[in-house]
Amino acid sequence: MLDCLSLILVVAVKVFKKTTPNGKVTVYLGKRDFIDHVDYCDPIDGVVVVDTEYLKGRKVYSQLVTTYRFGREEDEVMGVKFTKEMVIGQEQVVPMINSKMELTPVQEKLLKKLGPNAFPFTFNFPEMSPSSVTLQPAEEDQGKPMGVEYCVRTYVAESEDQKSHKRSSVTLAIKKLQHAPASRGRRLPSSLVSKGFTFSNGKISLEVTLDKEIYYHGEKIAANLIVSNNSRKSVRNIRCMVVQHVEITMINSQFSRHVASLESREGCPVTPGASLSKTFYLVPLARSNKDIRGVALDGHLKEDDVNLASSTLVCEGKCPADAIGIVVSYSVRVKLNCGTLGGELVTDVPFKLLHPAEGSTERQRFNAMKKMQSIERHRYENSLYANEEEDNIVFEDFARLRMNEPE
User: Fold this and answer.
1) Which residues, at least 6 apart from 359, have a Cβ–Cβ distance to it below 8 Å?
2) How many angstroms separate the CA atoms of 250 and 263, rounded?
3) What is the DSSP secondary-structure string of 202-217?
């Protein structure tokens, strides 16, 4: 009996849907997170079900829309807007123009189940399109947070340029995320710096080495430090931090946030002629930075298990400076306090923070942790897509069984 139940859970398909306020058009998506694999990106494949009698000669259009908010709404004065909305894909869904469209497995299942009034659509993200990122606002901030968002908008109109009516249009928010490559590589990022002092011979040397180049969200970061003091100064304490670097390309703004930190006096002071070897362990998490304004997140603020924004990756042969939207990077920063007159010795070691690759063992473990939190999170699910207040998101058998809802 258990084997049969397990089989049902494995093959069941989870589908998201949302219906227009007048109930005449329903949009189905197999997922809301679409992965950018650097060299290619998952297509946005969906199905629209429409009451054909309601159309009366009109057409159904779908758009892929991105919204780039690079300033606060309360700062918009004198007609100046800090928001750019761009339609990066548009398609006439009903009547269907491309009858030879190549269907994905999810679309084939939905068309078979939903009948003749179901019509497929497919969008592809443009090359170098930015990933979804949300900048965490402060408690006193009002309006929508800054960041890059995507949505699929479907509406009924006489022509594609005609303004849509709220009663016959529907919007589903989606996310574009980046995952780590299948192999993390063997390179160990490191940095070696030294500091001399005026009117004093010798130097203090600091070597920092990380145990990996790519870390997964929630994974422990190990920073190995070697301090060699060949000067007349002493190292009084050591501080190790994980720094998130954020660049808003639209306004050429850059800032950093400390998302994990640890200060230690163990082994200090490091006196002249002495050395110290020490390992710091840090875990950068979004839930540990809920009160810090400007921290970049890779999800909606209403999600309980939202992660810090993933590192921005560019395909081979492209310059990282060509990335657009909100560019995110990470580094481990180590500071040695050499006293009031000695100042600080500082170094940064860059690394990448990403989601595990699809199909990997780490990804299966990551998904298992997500499922354990899903029962606590399900009360937020209905509001993730909503511009309106109605409950429009439903789940297929997999979610109902997982939430122990009655059949």
Assistant:
1) 182
2) 36
3) EEEEEEEEES-SEEET
